[in-house]
Amino acid sequence: MPQPDPATEASRTPAVEAGGPQLPTYPQDPVPPQPPTPSNAGATADNPVYTDRTEPGEGGELHQLPGNGIPPLTTSQGQPLSDDQNSLKVGDRGPTLLEDHAFRDKMFHFDHERIPERVVHARGYGAHGTFTAAEDLSDLTRASLFAEAGKETPVFVRFSTVAGNLGSFDLARDVRGFATKFYTDEGNWDLVGNNIPVFFIQDALKFPDLVHAVKEEQDRGWPQAQSAHDTFWDFVGLMPESTHMLLWQMSDRTIPRSFRFMQGFGVHTFRFVDADGASTFVKFHWVPRQGLQSVVWNEAVKINGADPDFHRRDLWTAITNGDFPEWDLCVQTFDDDFADSFEFDVLDSTKIIPEEQVPLRVIGTMRLDRVVDNVFSETEQVAFMSQNVVPGIDFSNDPLLQGRNFSYLDTQLKRLGSTNFSQLPVNAPRCPVMHFQRDGHMQMGRQAGRANYEPNSFTGAAAGPRADRDAGFRTVERPESGTTRRVRAESFADHYSQAGQFWRSQTAVEQDHIRMAFVFELSRCEIPAIRQRVVANLRNVDEELAAGVADGLGMDLPEATEPAVAPRHDLPDSPALSMAFRAPDSFAGRKLGILVSDGTDGALLDALTQAVTSAGGLVETAALKVGGVVLAGSKARTPVDHKIDGAPSVLFDAVALLATGEGATELAGHPAVRDFVSDAFSHYKHIAYVEGAQPLLDVGGVADRLDEACHDLGSVTPDDLVTALAGLRRWERDV
């Protein structure tokens, strides 16, 4: 572990008097190298064996030698190695010797290089960035990161799925974690949220049951990374409080096109606290400046087969290309009077406050602009905890939040193996850290001096740190009273009204997708009674929804479940709950896939590429062979990005068919091309084509079904096409 630079430390900690304690210091995140770009990412592979510095071994093995800028290889203790190809043996073919400390060092570390993966949110991907405050929020909070407009705070964000393990696929129908660590000058603040503003349960006591139910079934070890099985639906069918979340889970929000195109939510009600100790309730929202976008279910299934790392690759590619994703951090703030008058309990994590009732206020913007240098060191070892707050941010009595605050510390100790996990660079605060915590596994702070306690009678720096009544964190003073009881508040008992409001606020297309998702998931349940119970609950949400799901399952409509509180069906629609409310207005950040062949018009290809990239989009080409094509009028072969078998249209937001003549005819005989065209059409995407691509339209079965989202490039300019692509999908298409 690299040690902090002394010059840097001198500027961030007080001088230590002779004989006094040296304040603990944590290794800081080093200055990052320039992230790779498409122009230099492969440079290290240009000469992979360094042929001018190699020697063959007696068995033909390759020995690469140091020199010319290549450092010598060492053990973990820094001892230079003479041979990293052979263990120490007796003779040529004799036994390996126990004294081979180099082998022992290498194998010991390899045998222990895995740590327990997260029980939930195991499959994640992270990136670094900066949060910039939009205004002075001192009227609401004393938190220093909001003290002035333009103030910048480093952040690390980890996106994740919830149910699947580390090796699962990206496009599971699942909630997405959206966790942000702010390295503020007053310590770390972790906003640990999801891409959905509500949750399945109201009390943290039920979290182990929820997770056990949604994970693979213990008697068979499957299904992986999905909720479409009996134990999950059995649990939520018996937990009516889950119903609102189920509507969100069955919506397109749980199959996002990209991490870059999804919202994030703090889920719980928190408190802002000002310098005088006055508090205001607050809910946090991340709103992507790129707009919202998801895929359709058939598309998700095929993406998982074609590229199970689709979301990870997308974020890495965007950042390394300089297309830095941005989110506005928005808040809903309200006082006790609003909380008391609101139709539902603001401490209930299965409820939202509609934006129409409390509008969003933008308080800053986050930009992600650097990929990690090492996925394990950063993305896997980052430790988020909801209890990590800074002065000016505090908790509410939300029982789910209270339970999370208790639980997360145990989780990090189990995974990272030491109470000193906060000293890992990705977790270390970027501000002075001064306390009397000592020792423990993997202690990396220099803890010299005599006093490791307080109060003590030393003076000056030798005395060590002291609590600061003025600047330190102060919990909001609030009156609490009542008899200790294990009870659920009656104000939490309405489980269906907001679920109905969410359903009615969706567009017809979104409602159709939700209904189909319920049908698919419940059809995977083997026990009929589970399906019946869930549909009975849905009757309290909306009769049309319940009837549609029952019809899709081929079952009679059961009697409605008796609700604890009669659901309200008069709540006004909330347009902000529909993804269409924040639909993109351009093709920026999206990808056009172009199918080319020998004879493709190079000028048109260049013009189309220029138009898309000028609008902030990406272009990738596919052909029959990855070696490339010979464009019309050229003798040289032009490289392509993909062989058609590895580039199905599900990987693109829109497609263009520029193959022509004999090349188009040859492509049309390839099964992958048929699927490329037919899938693009059935997934409602825009399709551009040239006259010579008719064989491709024919084999895809769409030649006589072309609509307004199918564009003849003989009559539509590339610029006009890119304008049309902003719509992304032609939902009116009859597929």
Folded structure, characterized:
One of its GO terms (cellular component) is cytosol. The chain has 735 residues and is α/β, with parallel strands linked by helices. The model is unreliable at 1-27 and 30-47 (pLDDT under 50). The chain folds into four domains: 1-78 and 101-113, no CATH class; 124-423, Catalase core domain (Catalase HpII,  Chain A, domain 1, Beta Barrel), CATH 2.40.180.10; 496-581, Hemocyanin, N-terminal domain (Up-down Bundle), CATH 1.20.1370; 587-725, Class I glutamine amidotransferase (GATase) domain (Rossmann fold, 3-Layer(aba) Sandwich). The chain is built from 19 helices and 18 strands. A hairpin with a 5-residue loop joins strand 1 and strand 2. Strands 3, 4, 5, 6, 7, 8, 9, 10, 11 and 12 form a ten-stranded antiparallel sheet that branches. It has a six-stranded parallel sheet with strand order 15-14-13-16-17-18. Strands 1-2 form a two-stranded antiparallel sheet.
Quick take:
The protein has 19 helices and 18 strands.
Break the fold down into its secondary structure elements and pairings.
Layout: H1 6-12, E1 54-56, E2 62-64, H2 101-111, E3 124-133, E4 152-161, E5 176-184, E6 187-194, H3 207-214, H4 230-237, H5 243-249, E7 264-265, E8 270-273, E9 279-288, H6 297-306, H7 310-320, E10 326-334, H8 336-341, E11 361-371, H9 375-380, E12 393-395, H10 399-416, H11 497-504, H12 508-523, H13 528-538, H14 543-553, E13 591-595, H15 602-614, E14 618-623, E15 642-643, E16 654-657, H16 661-668, H17 671-682, E17 687-689, H18 694-699, E18 710-712, H19 718-725
Parallel strand pairs: 13-14, 13-16, 14-15, 16-17, 17-18
Antiparallel strand pairs: 1-2, 3-4, 3-11, 4-5, 5-6, 7-9, 8-9, 8-12, 9-10, 10-11
Helix pairs in contact: 3-4, 4-13, 5-11, 12-14, 13-14
Biased composition (Pro residues): 27-38
Function: Decomposes hydrogen peroxide into water and oxygen; serves to protect cells from the toxic effects of hydrogen peroxide.
InterPro entries: Catalase (IPR018028), Catalase_AS (IPR024708), Catalase_clade2 (IPR024712), Catalase_clade2_helical (IPR043156), Catalase_core (IPR011614), Catalase_haem_BS (IPR002226), Catalase_immune_responsive (IPR010582), Catalase_large_C (IPR041399)
